[in-house]
Specification:
The structure is a homotetramer. Chain A has three helices and six strands; from the N terminus they run ααββαββββ. Chain A is of the alpha+beta class and about 140 residues long.
């Protein structure tokens, strides 16, 4: 796996942070890009009353959105300079109600290929409780 | 399949519309509940510059969010009076860039069980172009 | 969608049937390739006592296997001459116990791209009862 | 997570081994149940020429089948005495060609609920190369 995770773009962190800053939806959610390392990216989102489902928990779509961004940017850390990544598909299991003050999606690349990258993101709530988990495929171009 | 799709709650449309109105995240997205029929619900979202990814297309998370709500409410149309539904998991394939002025997630129940309901949602853009498709499992309680 | 579904290989049916014949696992399952049309392939498998789970129903893995092959070959009907396809990922919902004498996975291409093709397969049991549904992504090379 | 993973059936290993022995499909595949611990089960399958896809690699359906069984039995280790588990859905990403002499699906419970259990299985080839990964939902009854 070591070879997979060597960044081809020495400036990968800047590429990731600049792209994230262009995602207006992340701003709308109040989401923040935290850790950016080769093959690993964290995106956090605080609870907000504007992001809820019918019972006052964070909407599953919010968790999926930050996990999707985290997976995409984990892939981008390993992409070649100038490449962009687009989500092909993802799947998420919602294991506990999204109660809490703050949620963090921690994404990790499982397999970086020339064309496709597979990442996993676990979404944690307060006290590192595991709320959801995602498997994602992105394509580089 | 006929039996599956007979509503057990004669007031199912009101139950769905009231619950949707409580989803503050749908309001934040500007999403609107359109068709509500037994086993079938449509949720629409207009393009907005506040909901984009890095290239100015609608963020995959937005498509997933409206498709998830549509699937959940399609299941709720067939639930017993007083029941609520929660997403267990979903999977989405993003087939085309989400370009366009307006997107509609059309959800349909494939299998309504006592505990679990499986729905499919297709997300269409302008001109009924198929943008994405979701499979979703929800649990009633 | 019309453009997507025009076969680029006039001899697509032969390409599909020859490749299927090489899948020794399909022979082991007793699976048969039935319909082969542009963007649509059916694979059938009869019930067998050698293919069961603990309750005597067909194992979910058998349904997934024939649905995966059907999705892959639906994609291959639209590939260029000489191309091969490999499964990238798939997801299956198992909606009813796989009781019955015979099962058919009917796959249909939803989106044929240059690199990736997304297909859906519905698996039917006796009397066209919907047993399972799959979403699949394959890559051409 | 600790509470989740305490077995409710002191005889869980016997329950798992007896149920696995009834899965005729596992016998057909030549699959063997290896590790059985609370919340964790490994299922191995040797390469066989009878289980291949068109290029002579193990068919994706074989990997999915052993991963599905491993996930189901990981869930069963935590079920109450007398309970059975059935797969609701699963998703698998196929990350590398399934070349090699032997494959092991290592499943781990992520969340054990009263009704639903979510498990993850990683499938490794020779030299612990990560070939595929699955997320699975099973229902107890």
């Amino acid at each position: 796996m070591a070879d997979d995770l060597a960044p081809r773009n020495p400036d990968f962190e800047r590429a990731v942070r600049e792209s994230f800053a262009k995602q207006t939806f992340m701003t709308t959610l109040g989401a923040a890009l935290e850790r950016v390392e080769p093959g690993a990216v964290d995106v956090a989102v605080p609870f907000s009353e504007a992001l809820c489902q019918q019972n006052g928990y964070l909407h599953a779509g919010v968790l999926a959105s930050v996990a999707d961004s985290a997976c995409g940017y984990a892939a981008l850390t390993l992409a070649a300079p100038g490449q962009d990544v687009l989500a092909v598909e993802f799947k998420i299991n919602l294991m506990r109600p999204a109660r809490g003050a703050r949620f963090v999606a921690r994404a990790k690349v499982l397999r970086a290929g020339r064309t496709l990258t597979v990442s996993r993101a676990d979404v944690f709530g307060d006290g590192e409780e595991l709320i959801a988990t995602m498997l994602s495929t992105v394509i580089a171009r």
